[in-house]
């Protein structure tokens, strides 16, 4: 008779070494489960939950930004303006100007330049309005003649009928148009509020940008402040470089398109150049969109041949930007590939419209530099950098 106490008794099988039992401790069960899973599945699972956590944090950040979009946009615009004006303020301070006077001169100069651009556009439109009206009537008649001789064979009575249907549709939807006008008024109030917030934020950043940054770094744990401080200064240097380089790119685009429009005899050539200048602060996409407007104006008010020449001029200016200015100037300053620029602008436009397109590239560039700085670990070997910046933060930001 077999002894039941012996370990080789058939009713007492040995437990499987890799089995996960309920009696095992939690840590042991986890280790056994990890040994049971393939390495690829284990690594994919770890990556999956980390990516889900990052996506959740990003969703919360986007929700907060969308909720306070007027404040966020105003502050980001103030950052861009400050990044453009701080080097000028620092230049005046180095020439022994009082700091308050340098800030006032920088702000007043900015308002004077913007006011001069608006006045120039208004003057050009007022001076060219009579000629523009006559050209519009002529273009309207040419369009009617084209429709009557085209394969569509739309005569004057049919054309007038279509125009009447459009007018009736406008009358039928007058309530919606009125509500749209009210929404425009509400948007105007938001724009005015955002402008005032931008002005106050710019003034405070010019006066005490270093203090604002020191307060921001104190929000992080003490052990992380050196990394955050160094990354912030690297990002600020990239932002100032981006703004100055983008100003150069916008000037080249505006001058190029404006000269083509002027020599082709387009009406309102100067306003077109100013629109191109403002839109070119959206990299790559802005110059193309406003160039299409110039081509449309040439087609309607001058002729198809001039429109083709204008299209060639817009493409030439765009090629100059894409193959000379962006790779050599913008690429070396911002360190973002042109393909990444295009996709960043497209994604920013889909997410937040015009503000998203405007802030997409500087955001990507600054985040790229900050993450690279933190990952490089230079802040570990330079522990005195944070203290040095904290002692002379204003001088560092202005340099």
Total number of helices: 14
Return the structural class. mainly alpha
Helix % is: over 70%
Low-confidence stretches: 5-10, 15-24, 176-186, 383-399
- Biggest β-sheet description: none
Q: Please, what is the average pLDDT? A: 76
String of helices and strands: HHHHHHHHHHHHHH
What spatial form do the alpha-carbon principal axes imply?
A: globular
Number of strands: 0
The domain tally reads 1
Hey, roughly how much beta strand do the residues contain?
under 5%
Q: What distance separates the N and C termini?
A: 95 Å
Whole-angstrom Rg:
31 Å
Describe the structure.
With 399 residues, the protein is mostly helical. The protein has one domain. It is 83% helix and 0% strand. The protein has 14 helices and no strands. The chain has helices at 26-36, 39-67, 69-94, 99-149, 156-172, 174-217, 225-263, 269-279, 285-301, 304-334, 338-376, 378-381, 384-391, 393-398. The longest helix is centred in the N-terminal third of the chain and has 51 residues, at 99-149.
Mind sketching the topology for me?
Elements: H1 26-36, H2 39-67, H3 69-94, H4 99-149, H5 156-172, H6 174-217, H7 225-263, H8 269-279, H9 285-301, H10 304-334, H11 338-376, H12 378-381, H13 384-391, H14 393-398
Please outline what is shown here.
This protein has 399 residues and is an all-alpha fold. 83% of the residues lie in helices and 0% in strands.
Short key terms for the protein model shown above:
single chain; 399 residues; mainly alpha; 14 helices; 83% helix; disordered C terminus
């Amino acid at each position: 008779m077999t002894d039941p106490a012996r370990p080789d008794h058939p009713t007492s099988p040995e437990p499987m070494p890799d089995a996960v039992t309920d009696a095992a401790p939690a840590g042991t069960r986890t280790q056994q489960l990890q040994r049971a899973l393939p390495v690829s599945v284990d690594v994919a699972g770890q990556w999956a939950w980390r990516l889900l956590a990052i996506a959740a944090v990003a969703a919360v950040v986007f929700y907060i930004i969308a909720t306070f979009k007027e404040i966020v946009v105003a502050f980001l615009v103030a950052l861009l303006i400050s990044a453009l004006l701080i080097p000028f303020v620092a230049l005046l301070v180095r020439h022994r100007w009082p700091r308050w006077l340098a800030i006032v001169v920088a702000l007043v100069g900015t308002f004077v330049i913007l006011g001069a651009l608006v006045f120039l556009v208004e003057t050009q439109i007022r001076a060219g309005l009579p000629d523009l009206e006559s050209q519009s009537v002529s273009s309207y008649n040419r369009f009617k003649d084209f429709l009557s001789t085209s394969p569509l064979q739309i005569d004057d009575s049919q054309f007038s009928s279509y125009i009447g249907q459009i007018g009736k549709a406008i009358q039928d939807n007058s309530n919606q148009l009125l509500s749209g006008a009210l929404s425009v008024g509400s948007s105007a109030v938001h724009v005015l509020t955002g402008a005032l917030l931008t002005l106050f934020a710019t003034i405070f950043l010019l006066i005490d940008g270093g203090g604002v940054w020191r307060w921001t770094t104190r929000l992080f744990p003490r052990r992380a402040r050196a990394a955050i401080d160094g990354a912030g200064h690297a990002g600020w240097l990239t932002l100032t470089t981006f703004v100055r380089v983008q100003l150069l790119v916008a000037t080249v685009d505006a001058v190029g398109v404006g000269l083509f429009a002027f020599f082709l005899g387009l009406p309102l050539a100067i306003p077109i150049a100013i629109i191109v200048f403002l839109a070119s602060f959206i990299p790559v996409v802005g110059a193309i969109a406003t160039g299409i407007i110039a081509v449309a104006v040439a087609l309607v008010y001058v002729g198809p041949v001039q429109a083709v020449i204008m299209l060639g001029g817009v493409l030439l200016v765009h090629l100059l930007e894409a193959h000379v200015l962006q790779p050599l100037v913008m690429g070396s300053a911002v360190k973002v590939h042109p393909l990444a620029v295009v996709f960043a602008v497209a994604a920013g436009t889909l997410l937040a419209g015009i503000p998203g397109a405007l802030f997409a590239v500087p955001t990507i560039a600054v985040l790229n530099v900050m993450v690279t700085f933190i990952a490089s670990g230079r802040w570990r070997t330079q522990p005195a950098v944070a203290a040095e910046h904290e002692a002379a933060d204003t001088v560092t930001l202005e340099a």
